């Protein structure tokens, strides 16, 4: 049976964050508010929980899950190396609406789907999400919806789609406009904009000091 916690009230927010932390550590799923849309999340290093996340969304490993982090420094332990372009984008846009694809550290024991040795990272600009991430560490997070349906912009939409596959729902109120994060791939010789969302191609290019190529 899933439980919804109202994070607008201090007492239920603390109770909800404690319940969500316990759920993540027990290989269960949580729904959390982010600065884009609501997300469904699990411990990034718990492959069984990540598979459960994909099942809840009716999605296969061919659409891998990104990872949310609670601090800039967390990235250093997750990737093979942080190039200067990634540092510049992190400083300019994190926490915020930009996801960055990098080669992950080969020593990491995780299974996020068919990633081909890469990981998509983001630090969200939402106090509830950040508090949970700083408590439990990196989380595999995808939009809180069944694949093919609109992403949830409030906790009730998420619960209607995901039901009891999720143990804890953190209600942070309605999200903003349902605009996804932009995604920049830095695993090749030149940066590639895989998706233009909340952060424009022009803004990315300005930080990098050169045009960013859009995926064709």
TrEMBL record:
Pfam families: Sua5_yciO_yrdC. The keyword Cytoplasm applies. It comes from the Bacteria. Residues 14-199 form the YrdC-like domain. It catalyses: L-threonine + hydrogencarbonate + ATP = L-threonylcarbamoyladenylate + diphosphate + H2O. Its EC number is 2.7.7.87. Its main location: cytoplasm. Transmembrane segments: none annotated. Keywords: ATP-binding, Cytoplasm, Nucleotide-binding, Nucleotidyltransferase, Transferase, tRNA processing. InterPro entries: DHBP_synth_RibB-like_a/b_dom, Sua5-like_dom, TC-AMP_synthase_SUA5. It is found in: Cytoplasm. GO terms for molecular function: L-threonylcarbamoyladenylate synthase. NCBIfam families: L-threonylcarbamoyladenylate synthase (TIGR00057). Belongs to the SUA5 family. This is L-threonylcarbamoyladenylate synthase.
């Amino acid at each position: 049976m899933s439980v919804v916690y109202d994070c607008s009230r201090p007492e239920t927010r603390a109770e909800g964050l404690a319940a969500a932390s316990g759920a993540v550590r027990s290989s269960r799923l949580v729904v959390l508010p982010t600065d884009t849309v609501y997300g469904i999340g699990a411990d990034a290093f718990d492959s069984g929980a990540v598979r459960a996340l994909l099942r809840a969304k009716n999605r296969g490993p061919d659409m891998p899950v990104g990872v949310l982090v609670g601090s800039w420094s967390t990235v250093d332990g997750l990737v093979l190396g942080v190039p200067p372009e990634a540092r510049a984008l992190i400083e300019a846009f994190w926490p915020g609406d930009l996801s960055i694809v990098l080669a992950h550290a080969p020593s990491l024991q995780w299974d996020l789907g068919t990633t081909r040795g890469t990981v998509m990272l983001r630090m969200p600009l939402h106090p509830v999400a950040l508090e949970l991430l700083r408590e439990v560490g990196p989380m595999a997070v995808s939009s809180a919806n069944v694949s093919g349906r609109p992403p949830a912009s409030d906790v009730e939409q998420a619960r209607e789609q995901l039901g009891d596959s999720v143990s804890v729902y953190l209600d942070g109120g309605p999200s903003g406009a349902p605009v996804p994060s932009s995604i920049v791939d830095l695993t090749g010789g030149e940066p590639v904009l895989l998706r233009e969302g909340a952060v424009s191609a022009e803004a990315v290019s300005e930080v990098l000091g050169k045009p960013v190529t859009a995926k064709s």
